[in-house]
Amino acid sequence: RPQDARTLHLVLSKLGVHAYTERVPLQIMDFAYRYMSGVLSDAMAYEPPSTSHHSGAGSKKSQTNAGGPGASDDANISLAAVRTAIASRVANQFSATLPREYWAEMAAERNRIALPRVDREFGLRLPAERYCFTGVGW
Description:
By secondary structure, the protein is mainly alpha-helical. It has five helices and no strands. The chain has a domain at 1-48 and 76-111: Histone, subunit A.
């Protein structure tokens, strides 16, 4: 098992969760990966553009990737951008619902006005049966 899965098994057992399928840690890791990649992509969008542009003659830093293979100079994200991205997600995704008392009050107010009575002849008005193709003779 991967280290992250073992850590999640330990966390779940410490929290007293002992009965779960083997897919639960994988689902938690998938959620964490998707959440963090979304937060980091949002943080990159919130990050102000870099003021240092690469000069054609090139400095040593612009020619080599300081962050390793595949990394670029604009891959540095500030802590403020990450905090802004997390705050924007918390404000939209994990918003608390309104209390039950509020909804009960709204329902009581809405139900105070009775619905109109249903007539004995309700529904779609059809012509006489001899003019319809719904009769037995059809």
